[in-house]
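Onboarding guide, step 5: your first structure request.
Type a short instruction followed by the sequence, for example:

Predict the 3D structure of this protein.
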Amino acid sequence: MEDSGKWSCQVTAGSDQVNQLTGSRQTALHLAIITLFAGAIFFTNLGSARLWDRDEPRNAGCASEMLQRGDWVVPIFNNELRQQKPVLLYWFMMSAFLVLGETELAARIWSAILGLGTVWMTYGIARRLVNPTVGLLAAMALSTSIMFSVAARAATPDSVLIFFSTLAILLYVLGTFARQRENDPAQRLKTAGCWFPQHYGYVVGMYSAMAMGVLAKGPVGLILPTAIIGMFLLLQRLSPLPAEFWNRQGKLSRLAIGCFRPFAPWHFIKTCWSMRPLTAIALVLIIAGPWYVLVGLKTEGDFLEQFLLGENFGRATTVLENHRGGLWFYPLTLLIGFFPWAIFCFPTLLTIDRQMSQGSKYRTVILFTLCWVLVQISLFTIASTKLPSYVTPCYPALAILVGMTVHSWLTGQTSVARFWYVLAVSGLITAGLIISIGLFYVGQEFLGGDWSVAAIGLIPLLGGLLAVYFAWTDQRFRSVITVSLTSFLFSLTFFGFGTTAVDAHRLTSTVLEPIRQADPAVSVASFQVMESSWVVYSGRPIFELASSNEATGRNLERDRFWQRKPRITPEEFSQLEPGAFYLTTNQHVDELLARLPDHYEVAQTTPFFLKKDVQLVLLQPAHQEKTASERDDQIR
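The system replies with structure tokens like these:
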């Protein structure tokens, strides 16, 4: 009997080892697929298009100026303090510039790397909470969604914030939930009854990731992940009320109790304390605090005042740069930004409703991902300033929800009617038509009649037709494969090749090249128009001139190197900087010429990108006299 028991134990142990080995091979295969899938989208022709106005040149130019000055603390762009964002993105870019040179590829490569890392982590979260197949589907959905692909290919801090926010949530999940089994997903806690990591290493790692987010984009790097996890804990830590209590309540009373009960003062305080807030504060002070102290000292408090009060408090309480929107803004943003996989929005909503109302085994996963999405939407809906990129950190959660929905359809575990899935994949056909028409219009109106970009819309159109056929004939696996390949080809073509084709119609180099080749001592000014890319591609700072009633000074002197350059009139600037270059448009060139010395002439003109009937004009001292008619002909 003892030999039989030992043999049984050995067989069981061997079986576990085989399962672990099989799981390891499966994980390796999935990660290889994800890397090829997402890597092709994020890295193909990453540096082929020039930096897109306005944020990309500002960020890359800031990193370049900091590197040239040998200053790793004070963000400076166009010889002025750049108070909009903290320093982490600039550090990433500066490191890439040192290795790859100051190129578009170097400016964007860290965004692509961190984007790929976020896709890997999304797979890891879904694998731990549900199963590997859902993780694979979620990773493919995330890497092909429009707004996430933009973040992964753009020289902006969005990919940095998304990466560290997702890392914090991944560490929370790994520290809280044990490896799942198919029959009890997201129900196996590492420590029974504990919905927060008990191992201190996970807590330190989680809050360290949030501190890096604070270095990337400010307080939101700590607030967002903490609010998501905190909301989930407030719900999970509630003691259930007896059924008799609920039966005595009316519908409105149930709704009110359900909404306000998680925020009962004592419950709220205990939940917050269970999250170890002192550890969070200490790690933010240790990791992010030193740079904030240094930049505050070096700028005499100007950066902290402008960033914390203007950029953070200001955006929350007032509408900046006319970025406004109503309650509809972020739901519509998610529908567009999560395309192509947003076509599954109705099946996903129906799946969520039925799984939650029926007490499904996936209830905990759905609740967690809903907290991840709804907390961000709620916070940024309350804020006055609204931008589509603000809610991009919740895209991994959307991907997991869609992955669960598609997986339940594939395995036949859904109670949602087939009609909704057929309707969903038919959304690709509608989107393809809209994209083709929209890009055809853009090509005709703004790209010199180049309608070839409209062909990109044929990918979702044709893919949608095939996916609908498979869905209608109940060939679910083939339908999902078709949607996946269509999403991949659309994203690869749109971002990898479409942006390069559009960039070919940006002709500002015609105007900026004479400036780049001129003596570095010659100044450049702009009048009634300004784009940040001109600073980067002209290779020198640009002074913004003012109309007489907008002037903020009478000379170019500043008390501190980081302060904004005074805005003076063209007359005053021409006296201080004789021989300077001037940039304006055909709409303002006559006014500017009238205010400059007589020896100035139109040197170069080029179409202003995406502005119909607008020309960008370069003025410089004349080498020879030109008649007014010759000048007008050149402008035209």
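Each response can be followed by summary notes, for example: The chain is about 65% helix and 5% strand.
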